[in-house]
């Protein structure tokens, strides 16, 4: 089962500067609601499952991009993967994948790999191959730039 990670400690911040609404959402008594989704197995091993705010609905079910990204990364021909949501002509969200290859992976190779691993609603509707991911000033994948690439 996956749940939201809450943390507590002496070094935790007290809130966000001049952002009372965000502070009220994230800081609860002595706890900080991290926004990270985790699971803990029977041995106590914690696995990061993505960010709560990254999830989107596909066919009425919640999809966390990290699920599809992890599946793609298991393929030997994938160096990096990112999944975003793009709305179709009816305004419905569809997962789209961006992949940095290592080797000769084809779109069909990746489709077959995902088909064997994930429920159909999680399958990327399109897979784009790119040389490298656009990054934000913080060094994170710029998902907004990927969305512009997918829709432009």
Task: Describe the protein.
It is built from 4 helices and 9 strands, in the order βαβββββαββαβα. The chain is globular. The protein is α+β, with helices and mostly antiparallel strands. The chain has 2 domains: 3-51, Luciferase, domain 3 (Roll); 55-151, ANL, C-terminal domain (GMP Synthetase, Chain A, domain 3).
For this entry, give a set of tags:
three-stranded mixed sheet; Luciferase, domain 3; alpha+beta; single chain; 152 residues; GMP Synthetase, Chain A, domain 3
| Alpha-carbon Rg, integer | 18 Å
Q: What fraction strand?
A: 25-35%
Report the principal-axis shape.
globular
According to CATH, what is the topology of the largest domain? GMP Synthetase, Chain A, domain 3
Classify the helix fraction into a percent range: 10-25%
Main sheet makeup? 4 strands, antiparallel
* Spatial gap, N to C terminus: 37 Å
> How many discrete structural domains?
2
Order of helices and strands: EHEEEEEHEEHEH
In the CATH scheme, the class of the largest domain would be Alpha Beta
Mean pLDDT: 91
Strand pairing plus helix content: what structural class?
Answer: alpha+beta
How many β-strands, per DSSP? 9
Helical stretch tally: 4
Q: CATH superfamily of the largest domain, called what?
A: ANL, C-terminal domain
Residue ranges: pLDDT <50 for 5 or more in a row?
none
CATH second-level architecture of the largest domain: 2-Layer Sandwich
């Amino acid at each position: 089962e996956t749940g939201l990670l809450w943390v507590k400690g002496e070094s935790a911040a007290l809130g966000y500067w001049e952002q009372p609404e965000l502070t009220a959402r994230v800081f609860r008594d002595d706890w900080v609601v991290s926004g990270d989704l985790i699971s803990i197995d029977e041995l106590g091993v914690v696995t990061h499952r993505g960010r709560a705010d990254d999830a989107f609905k596909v066919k009425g079910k919640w999809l966390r991009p990290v699920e599809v990204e992890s599946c793609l990364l298991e393929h030997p021909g994938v160096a990096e993967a990112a999944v975003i949501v793009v709305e179709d002509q009816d305004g419905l969200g569809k997962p789209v994948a961006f992949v940095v290859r290592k080797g000769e992976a084809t779109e069909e190779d990746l489709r077959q790999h995902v088909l064997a691993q994930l429920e159909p609603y999680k399958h990327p509707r399109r897979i784009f191959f790119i040389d490298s991911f656009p990054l934000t000033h913080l060094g994170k994948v710029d998902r907004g730039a990927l969305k512009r690439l997918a829709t432009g």
